[in-house]
Amino acid sequence: MKESITLGRVESRLEDLSYPVSRRDAATSLDGVTVLMADGNADLGELVRNCLPAEFADAKDLYYELNNAMPIEALGEPGQSDGDA
């Protein structure tokens, strides 16, 4: 199933998984989910594959790791700092 979600909906989408979940199983479940980011789009399954832990205890754990795995440009407007807003 192909779907597109914004960054703001990622955490709620992660809550659909059963935990604990392995990185591999989470990535497979999230393949085809496109995340719309400030600097373009990315497949959520592929982003999960870029996370370091082999297993996630809950959705918050996975969400935290995803934020560490994403490029900083993905989280806001490219080239804009908090002070520029």
UniProtKB/TrEMBL annotation:
Q: What is the name of this protein?
A: DUF2795 domain-containing protein
